[in-house]
Amino acid sequence: MTDQMDDRKARASAWFAELRDNICAAFEKLEDDLDPGAPHGGRNPGRFERTSWKRESTNPADEGQDTGGGTMSVMKGRVFEKVGVNISTVFGNFSPEFAKQIEGAEEDPRFWASGISLVAHMWNPHVPAVHMNTRHIVTTKWWFGGGGDLNPVLKKYRSKETQDARDFHAAYKATCDAHGADYYERFSKWCDEYFFNVHRGEPRGVGGIFYDHLNTGDWKEDLAFTQDVGKAFIEGYVPLVARHMNEPWTEAEREEQLVYRGRYAEFNLVYDRGTKFGLQTGGNVDAILMSLPPEAKWP
Amino acid sequence: MTDQMDDRKARASAWFAELRDNICAAFEKLEDDLDPGAPHGGRNPGRFERTSWKRESTNPADEGQDTGGGTMSVMKGRVFEKVGVNISTVFGNFSPEFAKQIEGAEEDPRFWASGISLVAHMWNPHVPAVHMNTRHIVTTKWWFGGGGDLNPVLKKYRSKETQDARDFHAAYKATCDAHGADYYERFSKWCDEYFFNVHRGEPRGVGGIFYDHLNTGDWKEDLAFTQDVGKAFIEGYVPLVARHMNEPWTEAEREEQLVYRGRYAEFNLVYDRGTKFGLQTGGNVDAILMSLPPEAKWP
């Protein structure tokens, strides 16, 4: 059982690294493909830069132990104002207080968690911002989680009825339908519920999918779904960037984008569970807060 | 007892409004006093604009009842990039969950809270940002709380040894010493502990004072102290603005200011109790989040 679980952990981690490579390649290609006459077309195409970090657990139970780490890939380009594609594999012991909140950890605080997390903030206000994340978590139980959601920064695009929102959802729906008859309905609803800014009384974006604690009893199948969710992100998002990245924008649209990003920062700092999980388990602060926008306004 | 408490509530609220008027007048005078040759000296002096709001309680126990409200005073000027001086008086019933966290509310969820809250984000990176707040809260118990803290935006000023930090602390120390031999030591330490950004492992600023649950048994004295804390804020902060507001600054200093403001936003959204109190009691979101910087960067 332990050997099998070790093999599964290795396979899941390897997948997240492979997906990271594929996403970075696709995003660098978008940087290359920007029209010379488009805004920022005269700048050099951006490239990802990687930084690795080791986790420093603050839990005494982890003292002297390797507790994992991760690699941030960050690009500040001409299409992508700031995009982070982070992978991490962390393990050790949950603090007693935190263990109570995590399935399967109350009886044994040891955990292993691996995943990929991505947030892209774009220069062009016509290109939606985006977030995606998939992860595999192992305590005395195991499960997969993740999803992706689209965040148009201009009010005129903040509707599920736009072509962008339809296309983005369609990519996830095809993937969901191939794995579970009710997956798309459940996971897209879950996404809308999760990415809701309660104090503003408004959704963060136009949705996508969100799932957590996925364990059908068939590990291979649940990994396969999670892999397909990662591929669907590339299929769903890259064409939207290509569709809009050459469009000109106005100063007023830039301003609206910066104000929207303030709301985005509010959501991540007040509500986001991944942010809280990271900050509470001694994750790398720069990696966790890579999601915050390069520039934002609260005028 | 009820009549006496009603009178006390009225007196406390009236003080917060008076202090607001005095602060706004002092800040508008700074706007007027900017040197014509200073950065932004060619712009028109700013003026506060007031907006009132009524509280909409989400607690069913408050249905159909007046639950108070407040007035925001906001100035977007040439010295003050964005400053909010908010007063509010809110009352009603705490939600059962929230009542457990508040002293004297577990046995009776009715509360009354009045206060003034101020955050100033300055154009000039040589002028520190600042926060101050004082409040009077009544449940089955009563107490005062508040304080003020100085937030230099450039690293070179982020030390308690600067003239600005010394002068700011000296104003509060004189006030504290006049009211309690141990007040300054206790309340300045409390300030350093409270305004600490745990995930960054760094203080938000260079301190000041912070006190809460102040009830010496002598209501008049505790109000008098709270009034003096408000006056000390004006004496402590206004001269610092005058000292630096005419200094030129560089683009690099502006950039450093914007990055610092990102950290400031993190603190307020992740840790600040006033922010949480407001969002959880159905306070006015614009008033609560007035503290967020007009512009910030996470590069």
Considering the protein shown, what is the CATH homologous superfamily of chain A? Coproporphyrinogen III oxidase, aerobic
Count of discrete alpha- or pi-helical segments spanning 4 or more residues of chain A: 8
CATH-derived architecture of chain A:
3-Layer(aba) Sandwich
Largest interface: A-B, 22 and 22 residues
Helix content of chain A: 40-55%
Output the helix-strand order of chain A.
Answer: HEEEHEEEHHEEEHHHHE
**Domains of chain A (count):** 1
CATH topology of chain A: oxygen-dependent coproporphyrinogen oxidase
Provide the low-confidence segments of chain A as ranges.
Answer: none
Average pLDDT, all residues of chain A = 95
What structural category do the secondary elements of chain A indicate?
alpha+beta
Tell me the span between the first and last alpha carbons of chain A.
Answer: 56 Å
Radius of gyration of chain A: 19 Å
Percent range for β-strand residues of chain A: 25-35%
Counting DSSP E segments of at least 2 residues, the number of strands of chain A comes to 10
